[in-house]
Design goal:
The structure holds two protein chains of two kinds. By secondary structure, chain A is mainly α. Chain A has a domain of 216 residues. A two-stranded antiparallel ribbon of chain A has the order 1-2. In chain A, a hairpin with a 2-residue loop joins strand 1 and strand 2. Chain B is an alpha/beta fold. Chain B has one domain: Rossmann fold (3-Layer(aba) Sandwich). Chain B contains ten helices and ten strands. Classes of the chains: A mainly alpha, B alpha/beta. At the A-B interface, helix 7 and helix 8 of A face helix 2, helix 3 and helix 5 of B. Bound molecules: adenosine-5'-triphosphate and magnesium ion.
Chain lengths: 337, 243
């Protein structure tokens, strides 16, 4: 077997596994956990477009989740607009907000950028928590919004069972991964990486660094908002603490940093490793030690940053490559360089 | 037409006047040298030309167009490229990746950029390092990478800031050869260098800076025997005791 065909087989295997899982795993609880795992992998992959490739550390992406969730939910509840359409509107709104945040903040470096994004997201949360109505739109403050599960079906993005949600988020995740792959190999990807690593050198080579980052931010906020709508339809209940919380922003960043920011596999690996920790600590210690998962994440993050500063994807990729080499080698493929 | 013309250029950093009334003209096809003691303002001049700093006064014309305050990436698109005295590789990326970033200045296609980058690497006898991590290169190779990236942007005017500092004598000779070849390709070169042997061998014309001011200008051998220049480099005592 050649290395290429091994890689293709591996991809196929993962695809078949992901597509077939709901057929064998009938437990709704496990399916729920998996759906959230994909949801976080999707969010982190979207985050990675800015946080990974552009070399900045946004810590307020929950704001975009919230914008997506609230926009489609309000449009559905008050005007009967299909959540699919609302998803798009939320995405566009989030894009505008993302550009608005990016314009002044991309000139800041390091911690200042991170702090500015936190401040902004928290501003939005406090706002949502404290207003009941915004013009004609009912927001309901801290009580949040409930979507009555009356009109089930694909056109209303509402289902009685979990399987459809599973496949929808799986498709969304696959799409955003493919997009990331294409971008990383495009001019924009090169420009983002260059601008993130050595902005001055990049500029001298013709890169408008701020513009590249803004484009990445626009895409990232659009994609993140789509997940917000997904979450609203999946849980049918949103409130500021669930979709605009600092916890959510931090969890995305934790997953990215531990998995490996700036790589394509990193966010997925991070979600695969951390989501179970998060779920099980909530199931078993949720009452006694709420927030335990964040403490565990913190400890894991420290360890990873000390021993694998480029995230767990690096050793895992190396392991995978060695495995492929071994397989290709015994079958008479070319030796590795 | 002159490819670069500078008139009365000033640059102040707070109270410090790093450049004081600098004027010079570079004709197409020249190798133009800029020398001077440490802190004379040479890199500052490059940074003003390349759009990193806005000049505090004076005019800069590139191909007859005033470029004061133009942003670096636009200048690159116009055909002005530069290297950095303190090299700035994209350290976690491969050499090829680094050079492709430059090549993207002229194309949107990845395969075209890759073709272009490989061509530049081959030209600089650098292709065997194409897959090396830029951060792992030796200092000589990092300097070469700076040139490779700048060349990939297809410049008309190339600013080289001390690309020979830290190189072994044999490497210096090689670099002199490379720069002469570039001129053969029709690229005008503006070079800052401390290594006199190199600047003498290369330049058609040399400007000497001292405390931000031009103190001499002319053919290399002319400048080298100028008393003000010797004074600037070696201090007053030398000239007094020698004279
Ligand atoms: N960004 C800056 N802010 C403040 N002062 C600066 C800045 N850049 C340069 N200077 C000062 O301007 C003067 C000229 O510096 P410059 O780097 O242009 O010298 P140079 O001729 O390139 O020297 P060298 O041969 O050491 O590279 C120095 O006194 C330096 O300290
Ligand atoms: Mg200098």
């Amino acid at each position: 077997m050649t290395r290429r065909s091994i890689n293709q087989s591996a991809c196929l295997l993962v695809a078949v596994l992901a597509l077939g899982l709901p057929l064998v795993m009938r437990s709704a609880t496990y399916l729920h956990i998996l759906i959230l795992l994909y949801f976080y992998a999707y969010l982190t992959t979207s985050w990675n477009l800015v946080g990974g490739f552009a070399g900045v550390l946004p810590l307020g992406h929950a704001a975009f989740v919230g914008i997506g969730a609230y926009t489609s939910t309000i449009l559905y509840l008050q005007y009967g607009v299909s959540p699919w359409l609302g998803m798009l509107v939320g995405g566009i709104l989030a894009t505008l907000v993302g550009i608005l945040i990016g314009l002044p903040t991309f000139k800041m470096r390091g911690a200042y950028f991170a702090l500015a994004t936190i401040a902004f997201a928290e501003g939005i949360r406090v706002m949502i928590e404290n207003i009941d109505r915004l013009g004609p739109f009912v927001i309901n403050g801290p009580r949040g919004l409930q979507i009555p599960p009356l009109k089930l079906g694909l056109s209303n993005f509402m289902f009685a069972v979990k399987e459809p949600y599973y496949y929808i988020i799986l498709i969304m995740l696959a799409a955003v991964l493919l997009l990331t792959y294409c971008i990383s190999r495009s001019k924009l990807g090169y420009y983002l990486n260059a601008g993130g690593e050595e902005p001055e050198a990049a500029m001298a080579l013709g890169v408008n660094v701020a513009r590249a980052k803004l484009i990445a931010m626009a895409m990232s906020s659009f994609l993140t908002a789509l997940a917000g709508t997904f979450y609203a339809q999946f849980t049918l209940y949103i409130h500021p603490k669930s979709v605009v919380s600092l916890d959510l922003s931090f969890e995305i960043a934790f997953i990215a940093l531990i998995g490996g920011r700036g790589s394509i596999a990193g966010p997925v690996l991070g979600a695969l490793l951390l989501r179970p920790v998060s779920d099980f600590s909530r199931i078993y210690f949720g009452d006694t030690v709420p927030g335990l998962h964040l403490i565990i994440f913190g400890v894991v993050l420290i360890l990873v940053m000390l021993y694998q500063p480029r995230g767990l994807q690096e050793p895992l990729t190396r392991l995978y490559n060695r495995l492929v080499d071994r397989l290709a080698g015994t079958e008479g493929g070319e030796a590795s360089a | 037409m002159n490819i670069l013309e500078i008139r009365g250029l000033h640059k102040d950093f707070g109270g410090l006047r790093a450049l004081n009334d600098l004027s010079l003209t570079i004709e197409p096809g020249q190798i133009f040298g800029l020398i001077g003691p440490n802190g004379a303002g040479k890199s500052t001049a490059f940074n003003c030309i390349a759009g990193v700093y806005a000049p505090s006064g004076g005019e800069i014309y590139f191909n007859g167009v005033r470029i004061n305050g133009e942003r670096p990436w636009n200048l690159c698109k116009r055909g002005l490229a530069r290297t950095f005295q303190i090299v700035k590789p994209f350290a976690t990326k491969s050499v090829l990746y680094n050079v492709m970033v430059g090549a993207f200045a002229r194309t949107n296609s990845r395969s075209e950029a890759e073709r272009k980058a490989l061509e530049v690497l081959e030209y600089l006898h650098f292709e065997k390092h194409r897959n090396s991590r830029a951060g792992n290169l030796t200092i000589a190779d990092r300097k070469r990478l700076e040139i490779a990236r700048a060349l990939a942007t297809e410049p008309q005017l190339l600013l080289l800031d001390e690309v020979m500092a830290g190189l072994r004598p044999s490497e210096v000779d090689e670099m002199v050869g490379v720069i002469q070849q570039l001129r053969g390709r029709g690229i005008t070169i503006f070079v800052i260098e401390h290594i006199m042997r190199a600047i003498m061998a290369l330049s058609d014309h040399v400007v000497v800076l001292h405390f931000g001011q031009k103190i001499a200008e002319g053919a290399p051998h002319q400048v080298a025997s100028d008393e003000r220049v010797i004074k600037a480099y070696l201090g007053d005592e030398y000239v007094i005791s020698a004279g």
